[in-house]
Amino acid sequence: MASAETAAPAATLAPEPTNAPEPASVPGTTDDPSQEFLYENGRRFANPKFKSSYTMPNDEPEFARLDRQHEQFCFMFGGELGRAPLVKEEVKTVVDLGTGTGIWATDFAKKYPDAKVIGIDITPVQVTEKTPANCTFQLADFTAASTWEAYPPASFSYIHGRMIAVGVRSWSALARQCYDALAPGGWVEIQELSFPLRCDDGSASPDGPMLQWSANMIAGGAAFGVDMTGSRYFPDALVSAGFEDVTLKPYQWPNNPYSSDPVLKAIGESQQHNFKNGLEGFSVGLFTKGLGWSKEKTDKFLGEVREVISDTRQHVYMPMLVMYGRKPLAK
């Protein structure tokens, strides 16, 4: 079984800007026709050729939200980029699964200038003058066997993934892929939400908009073959795949600043903006395609959810799991 730990942040979180920030690195279109996007329900999505279960948009509002969410993770980690106990001299080749805007990969490459960092995503990431020379991006689906087969076995010293649950149909398969791809002594770390939303004190009704949204997300994911509660099984999947030193660190992301704990209050202040800004993107694909709802029905329901996100009388939080393990050293 995996061991469990808790940890408290020790950093500051900047206030939510009045206007959405420009993303640190903006994925963009190219002249390559293979990178065409899908436009529907007023949003832009990844090229359908990938046949991915990932239903989140890849447009400018989503890029800005992802970059802001990156700051929230860094705050939770006390200013760090992750929790796995990496030894800097041993970090050689790194892959970031579902890299999004590439902000984590870029920051990691700056912190580890001697490492080669590769960000993989089904949305192309535009390399800018701010992109370190040791950071590159690959347009691919990290769940596809062909993506992993493009690299020799034992290629990586660190595999990182964050908020990738919607794109993962099998956590056991991912654990095995990571094991094969890591060099002996290498680490895998996944930072992931764990549905359902929780309310431990009964302050939010199970029939109210917030917890109903959570239930609908789980049902919508199931229609795509995705278990939105499945990340909790990843530590045991790591053990089964052969990893050692497997660790689970649970965190809470309050929906709003209802907590009297200063750290949770700060996370809640940030998360209420993250939730509001991302609510449509989180939901529209799973609700319209998974549940078969009309866009009008989806919008009406999300309006009800949006009204209660900031209600500090409702003590709702998203469980957030940080899970990592090490491939054994060669004997």
TrEMBL record:
InterPro entries: SAM-dependent_MTases_sf. Keywords: Methyltransferase, Transferase. It holds the Pfam family Methyltransf_23. Residues 1-36 are annotated as: Disordered. One of its GO terms (biological process) is methylation. Coiled coil: none annotated. The keyword Cytoplasm does not apply. Residues 1-23 have a biased composition (Low complexity). GO terms for molecular function: methyltransferase activity. It comes from the Eukaryota. This is Putative TAM domain methyltransferase. It comes from Lophium mytilinum.
